[in-house]
Amino acid sequence: MSQQQFENFTASSLYCEKCKAAMPVRERLLLVLPDKEIFDYLCTGCGSSVGRREITGGEKLMAQAMAGRRRRRSTAVHQLTP
Ligand SMILES: [Zn+2]
After folding, report:
1. Closest residue by Cα to residue 23 from 1, 41, 10, 2
2. Across the 82 residues of the chain, what is the mean pLDDT of every consecutive 10-residue run?
3. Centre of ligand 1 from the C-alpha of residue 13, in Å
4. How many domains, the chain?
5. How many Å lie between the centroid of ligand 1 and the Cα of residue 41?
6. Distance CA 50, CA 42 (A)
7. Among 31, 33, 43, 67, which one is most buried in terms of CB atoms within 10 A?
């Protein structure tokens, strides 16, 4: 069981209006908030945004579990203590 497999699993195809076809997309981390992460999906053909996904709370934990340990770094939210 390799992590590479899991990384590929998250990449999927979405319909691109510019390409007029279902194109493989690239997942891009758009925004990281303490309680959620927002991902942008970019068409690999023309580079335009074809979708967006918000991952919050338990959903985020599940996605992280599926994505392996690749994003563990970003999950460690350090609270600022005075
Ligand atoms: Zn496209």
Report:
1. 41
2. 46 88 93 91 94 80 69 56 66
3. 11
4. 1
5. 11
6. 6
7. 43
